[in-house]
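Can you give me the bound-state structure? Components:
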Amino acid sequence: MAENETKPSACCACGTAPKLIFSCSGAADVGHVSDLAARKLTREGAGKMFCLAGIGGRVSGILQTTKAASKILAIDGCPLDCTRKSLEEADIQEFEHLRLTDLGMEKGQTPVNDESVEKVVTASQKRLAC
Amino acid sequence: MKLVQILGTGCAKCEKLKHNAEQAVSQAGVEAMVEKITDINVITGFGVMMTPALAIDGEVKSVGKLLSPEEIQELLA
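Here's the bound-state model for the whole set.
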C-alpha cells in the first residue's frame, strides 16, 4: 500500500466513536489539496477520512457509520461546497465545515504542495479538536 | 427469507446484539436467518467503520448501537 493511502478499519463502539473527515477531492487544485489534507489528518490520527462518494451513492453502511460518528469535518476546496451539500442532501446536518478559499487559497491558483496541505491540516485540527 | 447480519469482531456488545436479533426474529415470527460476521475485511466492505452493526438483506440499518429486540423487530417489519 502506498504511503499516502488510507486504510479502512473498523472500531468497536465499546470505545469512542470515530471522528470522520470528508473532502471534496475535486478536480481543481484546491480539491486536490483538500484530499491530501484529509489523508494526512488520517495518518496523524486526527480523524478518519471517509468516502464522500458513498454519501452521494447512499451506501447504507457509510451513511449509518457517518450518522454514528462523534464528529464530522467537511472540507471543501471552493464555494461550490460539494461536500457540505452532499452531506446535507443525505440528511446529515451536524458537522464542522472548512472551505479552502476562506483560507486565502484561490481556485486555479493554488500550488499543490506541502505548505498548502499543512495550512489545511492546521485549520482542520482546530475544528476537530473542539 | 430475510438475512440478518451482525457485524462485529466478537466483543460483548456484538454478542448481545446477535442474541437480541435472534430474540427479535423469534418474537416477530418472520422467516429469517441470523448470521454473525467477524471478518474485519468483510465488515469494512459494508462501509462500516464502527461495530456492532446490523444489516438486513445486505442493507446496513444500524452502526455502533446495541439495539433492543423491539427495535430490531421494527426493522424486520
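A couple of observations. The beta strands of chain A are 11-12, 19-23, 48-49, 71-76, 96-99. Chain A has a mean pLDDT of 92.
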